[in-house]
Amino acid sequence: MKPFNYLSNAVRAPEIVAILVRWGFEDLLLQLDTPQFLLRNLVRKKVAHLSPYERVRNACEELGPIFVKFGQILSTRPDRLPEPLVMELKKLRSHVEPQAFKKIEPVLLKDLGRPIDEVFTEFERVPVAAGSLGQVYKAKLIATDEWVAVKVQRADIRKTISSDLEIIGWFAKQLHARVPELRAYHLPNLVHEAEARLDEELNYTNEADNAEIFRALNTEQTQVFAPKVYSTFTTRRLLVTEWIDGAAPGDVELTVDDARELAKQGGESVFRQIVVTGFFHSDPHSGNMLVTPDRRICWLDWGQAGQITLEMRYLLVDLFAAITERNAAKVIRVAERMSVNNHRIDRRQMDKEVTFLLNKYRDFGPSGTKIGTVGLEMLYIFGRNGIEVSADYALLSKAIVCVEETARMLDPEFDILSVAKPFLAQLNQERWSASSLTSQALYPMLEMLRRLQQIPEYLQRILQRVEAEELQINFHHTGTENLQDTFNASMNRLTVGIIIGSLLIGSSLIITTGVGPLLWGFPAIGMVGFLVSGLLGLYIVISSLRNHP
After folding, report:
1. Is 142 helix (H, G, I), strand (E, B) or coil?
2. How many domains in the chain?
3. Full domain range(s) for residue 56
């Protein structure tokens, strides 16, 4: 994450500050030591009727597509952010003006490696869809005479992302350092993780791989599919897939029976992905789903996918059982097994929070609470109490929330628990079968024996390093995250101070010489030196008073 520089963000930074003030975050900006000239004469909206989380979502939408995409990525971290905020961020949708084809065309030509008419017999210059990162065009291949969807990355998108992420990173560091109430969220780490995820989404080969993996793992499903990828033409900035005729669930005219059947198929598909294959679409909302004329479901946009191991699936079954049984003690035991760290937790406090949550949501199903919502809040309780779980569990919870919402658009009586139970029961049956129990007992025992055999070798290596005086102990000091910025600022001021001193001494020497040209009877060069040193000195004084009043 690059350090923030007002000079390089002279246009974007005031624009962001103005939008944040408009949505009622002026008090927060004042805590961040935001320069006063950025806060003057700004328009404030009346937003008292909106919750803070709703204001965050509205601000992200006004701040532009990169902030929207960033918010969408953060919505996959319910273990680190409150459930109401996650639900608001999940509503974010990119409403982006398409880029002119003349800007996109150089990217397309460079990644195709040849002229457009050598690959496509037809290429529609008007995009059929425009997102924050790329645009989709309809075309027909010369080689196969098939219609395809051509997804091209926006021109200069990496430069735009780099600029906005620099500002987001600065805000995150300032909020973490200056607002104690937000330190528990570890915002700089969240930004760093989101930045890595965004970088993955900018590489379209990842999306192509995810779609192909789904197709390979779900060959038996005929009613649910992903578009075929043309890997010959796919690069980091270009993705070519088969063209799918269809419409979003909300735009299709269906009979009650057809709608109910589609909702069931979508729910079964997601739980098959999660429970059977362990590889799943992490954002199956209605915008990423097409219903074809023959009433099949096509999952689009495979930029985000989750993967859980067999052991993680077993723990998922246990967690579902504990939640539906409202057994807080069992929930905590499962959570400790799900944890990727070994931190001690306050079991009494966690028991109170889990029990309250289970009592708060007593009814699941169409007339009650969405099970995905409970999962989101449960993960947040885990994270707040020091239990860090795999990020794929968070993606999984979001996927369940999305599929519940999409399915209930089609069938208001859709009950995801009834869809999930057969898959969970099948996994549980496989888990406790004789062959599974044998493998679960045998392989760990063989692994333990192998490790016991390696102990003498490990001890010998340690002794050899001690003898060769190569043994090192690494320390990590916490609480010094801002030390580098402080050091850089101090060195900059010291450098300016040295320059000021040099200017004063040089100017004093020149003043005594009487060398022309003269200004008010004194050498002009000496007077200019005094003026520059005075301005630099004034800058240092003002800067010091602002940062350390």
Report:
1. coil
2. 4
3. 12-94+162-200
The CA distances from residue 409 to 264, 296, 308, 367, 486, in Å, are 12, 16, 28, 14, 53
The answer on 456 and 355 residing in a single domain is no
Q: How many percent of the chain have pLDDT more than 70?
A: 88
Q: How many CA atoms lie within 13 A of 84 on its CB side?
A: 7
Looking at every residue in the chain, the average pLDDT score rounds to 83
Q: Is 462 found in the same domain as 391? A: no
Own/partner pairs, 205-209, CB within 8 angstroms, 24+ separation = 205/234, 205/235, 205/236, 206/303, 207/239, 207/301, 207/302, 207/303, 208/234, 208/239, 208/241, 208/302
Residue 278 gets which letter from DSSP? S
Same domain flag for 185 and 309: no
Predicted confidence at residue 225, as pLDDT, reads 93
- Residues with Cβ within 8 Å of 324's Cβ and at least 6 positions away in sequence, in order, are 364, 417
pLDDT digits (tens, 9 = 90+) for 448-458: 888 888 888 88
Interval 491-505 mean pLDDT: 77
- The whole-number average pLDDT for the span 272-289 is 88
The first and second tokens of residue 3, run together, are 């350090």
CA atoms within 13 A on the CB side of 106: 7
| 187-212 average pLDDT score | 89
Calpha distance 462→44 (Å, rounded): 64
In a domain, 312, yes or no: yes
Q: What is the pTM of this model?
A: 0.73
Nearest to 19 by CA among 49, 37, 43: 43
Comparing CA positions, the residue from 164, 155, 172, 67 lying closest to residue 104 is 155
Q: Cα 394 vs. chain centroid, distance in angstroms? A: 11
List the beta strands (DSSP E) in 191-338.
224-225, 238-242, 279-281, 289-291, 297-299, 305-307
Query: pLDDT, tens digit, for every residue of 380-402?
Result: 888 888 888 888 888 888 888 88
Q: Is residue 313 located within the same domain as residue 423?
A: yes
Q: Is the pLDDT at 22 greater than 90, yes or no?
A: no
Q: How far is CA 148 from CA 55, 77, 142, 205, 242, in A?
A: 39, 34, 11, 17, 4
The reply to whether 366 and 424 lie within a common domain is yes
Last residue in a domain, options 411, 432, 453: 432
- By CB neighbour count within 10 A (0-12 exposed, 13-18 middle, 19+ buried), where does 464 fall? exposed
User: Which tens digits make up the pLDDT trace of 499-522?
Assistant: 777 777 777 777 777 667 777 767
Is there a single domain that holds both residue 268 and residue 355?
yes
In 44-100, which ranges are continuous DSSP H helix? 52-63, 65-74, 83-90
CA distance 25 to 164: 18
Q: What is the pLDDT of residue 549?
A: 46
